[in-house]
Amino acid sequence: MQWQISIKGFQSFLRLERSLSANSIVAYTEDVERFVQFLSEKKYDLPPEKIEHVHMTEFLKWLNELDRSATTQSRVISGLRAFYKYLLLENLVSTNPTELLETPKMGRKLPDVLDIADIDNLLNAIDLGTPKGQRDRTMLETMYSCGLRVSELVNLKISDLFFDTQFIRVIGKGNKQRLIPIGSEAMKHITIYKNEIRIHVPVQKGFEDFLFLNNRGKKLTTTMVFIIIKSIAAHIGLKKHVSPHTFRHSFATHLVQNGADLRSVQEMLGHESITTTEIYTHMDRKYLRDTIEKFHPRSVKRNL
Predict the structure, then answer these.
(1) Alpha-carbon distance 179 to 169, whole Å?
(2) What distances in angstroms separate CA 234 from CA 121, 130, 238, 289, one per listed residue?
(3) What is the largest CA-CA distance in the chain?
(4) Which residues on adjacent β-strands are paired with residue 177?
(5) Which stretch of DSSP H or E encloses residue 177?
(6) Which residues are identified as catalytic?
(7) Does the pLDDT value for residue 155 go beyond 90?
(8) Domains of the chain
(9) What does pTM read for this prediction?
(10) Is 219 helix (H, G, I), strand (E, B) or coil?
(11) Pick from 232, 250, 204: which is nearest to 132 by CA?
(12) What is the mean pLDDT of residues 158-162?
C-alpha cells in the first residue's frame, strides 16, 4: 500500500465520515505528510503497514531536533493517530504504531484577551463614513457579540439571521449547527450594513446569501479578516496580539467575569467538551488576582 493512495483514502474518510472542514482535512494531511518527509530523509522505504513504534519514536526525536514546539509535536501525533485509526478501521493495517506513543507535556497557555476599553477603541477607530468601514465594524461587532470563529463569521448567511428572536444560526466544526443570542448593537450594525451598504455590491452567483462580501461580490476569506483586524490594531497602536480569535476569547472571558455559567458559555462557543471551556475559569481567576493586586489597599504591587 502506497502512502499517497492511503492519504487520499484518509482524506475521503475525514470528509465523508467525519464531516470535517476543508481546513481540518488539510491539517490532518500535513501531519501525515510530515511523517512521510521524515521517512524520505531517513531513507526508510516503508509503506504504512510496515511502520513500527520505533519509527514513530525516532520521528518524535527528529521533530525535536528541528526545534518544533510541544504543541506542534502533539498536534502531529494526533494527526498520525487519526490516520492509523482509519487504516485499522479499513483493515489496511493489523497494528497501530502510534498506540503507545507518548505525547509531549505542554503547559496550558492562556489565550490573549482584550479588555472592554480595548474592544471599544478598536471599534471606534473604524471609519463608518465608508462602505468598507461599515462592513468591518459590523463584522467585529458580530464576532464580539456572538463569540464566532473566523470561519463561522465568513460563512454566516442572511438566512441564518433570526432577529425577531434575537438569535443567529451558526455552522461550526463538523457541520454542527448551533443557535447563539445576538446583542442589539450587533443587530443594529448588521441591519445598516445589509440594507444600506450590501445592496450596492454586485453579488457574484453563488454568494447571494452570504452576509459579508468583498468589493467583488464574493464572501470574504479568513485571511482578509485577519488583515483587517491587524490593520485596525496597528492604526490605534495597540500593542497586544490581536486576531479574529482574540474577539472570541474576549467574548467568553467577559461572560465568565460577569457571572455567566460555564455550560451556557460552552454551548455558545460550540465546544464539544466542557474541559475546553474551563480555560476561561482560569482567565477569570487571573482577572480576580489582577483586580486585588491593583485595588486592594494591602496589595504588594499597589504599595510599590
Answers:
(1) 5
(2) 12, 19, 6, 29
(3) 70
(4) 171
(5) strand 177-181
(6) 149, 173, 245, 248, 271, 280
(7) yes
(8) 3-89 (1.10.150.130), 116-294 (1.10.443.10)
(9) 0.61
(10) strand
(11) 232
(12) 97
